[in-house]
Amino acid sequence: MFDDLDTDRRPLVLIWEVTQACGLACRHCRADAKPARHPDELTTEEGKRLLDDAASFGDGQLVVLSGGDPLARDDLSELVSYGDDRGLRMTITPSGTQSLTPDRVEALADAGVRRMALSLDGATRESHDRFRGEESFESTLEAAEAASDAGLPLQVNTTVCAETVDELPAIRDRVRDLGTVLWSVFFLVPVGRGRVLDPIPPERAEGVMEWLHGVAESEPFGVKTTEAPFYRRVGLQSDGDEGAARRRGGITAGRGFAFVSHTGEAYPSGFLPRSAGNVRDRSIVDIYRSADLFESLREPDRLKGKCGACEFRQVCGGSRSRAFAATGDPLESDPLCPYVPEGYDGELPATLTGATEDSTGTPDAAD
User: Fold this and answer.
1) What is the CA radius of gyration of the chain?
2) What does the pLDDT read at residue 121?
3) How far apart are alpha carbons 338 and 336 in whole angstroms?
4) Of 23, 152, 162, 249, which residue is 20 to 30 A from 130 by alpha carbon distance?
């Protein structure tokens, strides 16, 4: 999937957080979203210039319009249509609110949206709505049905933390029933409101990765992880293909991935809020290709600690966002990964040195 992508030149995924406004109060929200729009959001014309620049990356650049809730912008369809006309693959991650009506979904599809991603963080109305802080479960399911009716491929995003991990098998069943093309499983990074949630311990995360590989093999939809690139390491070890460890890997923050905030700040990821410049002053293409922060994140040999010593650093590289959240240094070790390279005797993240709880295993061994 990634072998032909030169991540030094272009990202696989460019996310534009078009607004931080949202009617929900999700407990894990990276953006700490508010009901009202920020007065310094990129304007329609500034957004179009950003999309022009994004098209300079090359044919078919993937752009995700994110939030907050993108539907809070009344120029959303105009922006989608403009990006589609420029040859961009426009996708969207709306919030599951009552404003996401079938008519609105159809209008977005007509404007040129190629895929819609909806969040499902519980298998039942009670668990999902509790996690999301508002009643959104039914609206999310209705929006999924509307996407199917409009011919829009559906992606489902799920946050994994201590509160949600045991529901993963039941959420998987929902994902299957919705006719989803991709299940994107987000492993908690403690930023925004997510700082108050408890992550799962590293050994539990390892078990979840093994379980997800089984899901990917048995289900009709694809599976990807977000902020947990050691999913790839687990897969190589499970397949007995450790010789592939030096192949070029998938995407991580700044390495095949870029994020533009609602006010134009360019970050390696929305979960790594260190700005490398503002698109009002500098092209996103120039920032991605030339900014020191982005360049450093594309050099696995610059990684520190056990990530720097790991033979899987080319195909994994660890979550740079979680390393930044834990240490303030995006090149440090990912504290969620329990793998320790053979012969490594350096410092370990606190999550590993202080772990005493037996937390191995899949979400549910019976599943």
Assistant:
1) 20
2) 94
3) 6
4) 152
